[in-house]
Amino acid sequence: MGQKFQYDESGGTFFYFLLSFLALILIPATFYYWPRKKKRDPEEENKECKCPECYIKREYLKNAEPWKGPKNFLIKLVIIAGWVILVLLAYKVSQFDYEMANFDPYEILGVPIGASQGEIKKAYRRLSLILHPDKDTGNEKEFMKLSKAYQALTDEEARKNWEKYGNPDGPGAMSFGIALPSWIVEKENSVWVLGLYALVFMVALPIVVGTWWYRSIKFTGDQVLLDTTQMYYYFFHKTPNMALKRVIMILAASLEFDKRHNSEIVERQSDNEEVPQLIKKLPNLNEKNKERPLCYLYSIKARAIIHAHLGRIPLNPTTLEVDRRYIIGKCPYLINEQVNCVNQLILLAYARRIQKLPSIETIENCMKLCPMIVQGLWEYKSPLLQLPYINDDNLKYFMSKKRQIKTLQQYAQLKGDDRRSLLRSLTEEEYENVMKVLGRMPYIDFQIQVEVMDDDNPTEVTAGAIVTVTVTLVRKDMGTLFGDDTVKENTTITENGTEEVKEGAGEPEAEATVKRPAWLKQKRGGGKKTKKFSKQGSKPASVPKPKAEESPKPPSEKKKEKPKVKEVKEDDETDESDESDADTNENDKSSDESGVNKSNNEDDDQEWEKFRKIHEREKSLEGKSKSSHPVHCPLFPHDKQEYWWTYICDRKSRTLLTAPYHITSLVERETVHLKFTAPNWPGVYTFTVCLRSDSYIGFDQQKDIKLDVKEAPAEITEHPQWEFEDSEEEGPAENNDHESEYTTDEDLPEDED
């Protein structure tokens, strides 16, 4: 049985094609692109700041997209029109199916099955007199069906084929209709069809692909111009130790602010008058710098606007204020790119591909600039100015003789009456608004855990080992501090606004978030408990908790003071185990059975540790979320979410040990694993784990960790595969005059930071 391909003469299969194609596009387009109004929670509206600056910002964001209403209307109109066309096509196709499914010659002629030839002819003559096109009651379409039914029943062979196969022609060849109308291949239409193909595939498609490719190769993954990134690399390599104001100069020179590279930039004739007047109000702008592109007009204008933003200088609302919103809105993305560039240069310096190593101060100045931009404050200004209604006149009440309130945390920990007395110049409504904003600011419980994973002894660090620092962040609202009379036990707030967390504090909060599976529960009646503190979240009993009555000591004294360690006897530690042993003896169990239970408990601990690590690795492989908590930033033109950086550095050698990890999804709890290679030489090293906010000033924290690096085992150091050709040139390990990229505690005086 052969097959036959033919173009669709009637157009039925073409309608099937249109129907399916339109449905595949219309259904997901309706789901994703139908405009929806966001229902605002009344509780969230009550939590919003009601200060004048925030009100102006919300009105600006509402009016920032005037085309949003017409755009939503057009999208709805297109989707509705598509659904109307889809319904019409479905009705058309259903009519095709009805006509094809209802062709029955006996029913058309009105004769019963098995009727004689005479009855069939008589019925045909009677109906043809009615349906013939020449008659007044004629119907050409129905007459064609009548003729086809008559031919099917008067021919004996056709009648048998119909009764047997349902087709007068019998089991003919399988026919495939091409879902294109026949006029496409007609000779008189060939020129138009070829022209359409050429227009779509040879003109439109290459233009679309070329435009997309040209635009994509100009930007990095974070939508920063590649030319801007190359400029960052040049200046950070040229100036390894870069001051904060120099970082601002490099930021203002970004090509995103140059009209030649960004068509969204607006250049006005009034800039020739307004920008010089603004420069006169700004000290230390360094506008006479001759370096390119730092001396270009667009760079000087952007630098002046950034300085005016940090100084909270009002600008012309119709000209420079519009430019300020655009420039400041771009800055967080550009600053994050600066951090990435400095980090890449540090990696290249470690790989000895470049000679100059950027200092830790350079990358920290880049991070420090981000919250300054978001809050519109210089770093030397009081963090209290981040609250609404607070100005320089109110600050004099915070610095009285009785108390020295320098940080938001210190102010939040005061009694309610004391807090109100410091802001007695504000009305009750304004004061409630201040407390509302302060209560929603972040209070981070910052804890760390140091271990050497995939090693027999996770607590012992050997030379060249991979050290994993588990950073656990628990985010709470600042409102949890309201009403506290004393400073939190585990936190000391320094004068510069940073928080230093005492060693061993808050470790009960750092317990593993994954619940222990039921199949890993400890068996009862086991052996004695072993002294292991390698599990994450466990705390040695030898480290006492700090008491609430103890007054916090200055950081310099805390560094000199050595932690006091209790001597815990084996009998004191295993009292509970002895009781279980006594029960075991009463039940007449042998020591061999106890040893088996002890090994089973250790196996369960190992299985649980593997389960926890696998869970954390799977979580780390998930995509990063960009939603955390909204930031109160009335001077920043867009809505901002709380993001954080965490990294490890060596303050003494001024080097960076790990790449800064950008945390963008800290809602309640976040765990980050930072890994670095231990120093190659034995000794005691002090490193610093840092946490920096990219949204608020004065919320940075840091915690020191001490690593007692032991000499690596002989079977590792003397293994042939670790011996290199240049090992003799570097000198033996026993040599005391070696050079290390890290600095031990013995290399510097005790009073040096």
TrEMBL record:
Keyword line: Chaperone, Endoplasmic reticulum, Membrane, Protein transport, Transmembrane, Transmembrane helix, Transport
Residues in coiled coil: none
This protein's name: J domain-containing protein
Organism listed in the record: Aromia moschata
Amino acid composition bias (Acidic residues), ranges on this chain: 570-585, 723-732, 742-753
Ranges annotated as spanning the membrane: 14-34, 73-91, 191-214
GO MF annotation, one: RNA binding
Chief location category: endoplasmic reticulum
PANTHER family listed in its UniProt record: SEC63 DOMAIN-CONTAINING, TRANSLOCATION PROTEIN SEC63 HOMOLOG
GO cellular component terms, semicolon-separated: Sec62/Sec63 complex
Family matches, as SUPFAM superfamilies: Chaperone J-domain, E set domains, Sec63 N-terminal domain-like
Region (Disordered): 483-608, 716-753
GO biological process: post-translational protein targeting to endoplasmic reticulum membrane; SRP-dependent cotranslational protein targeting to membrane
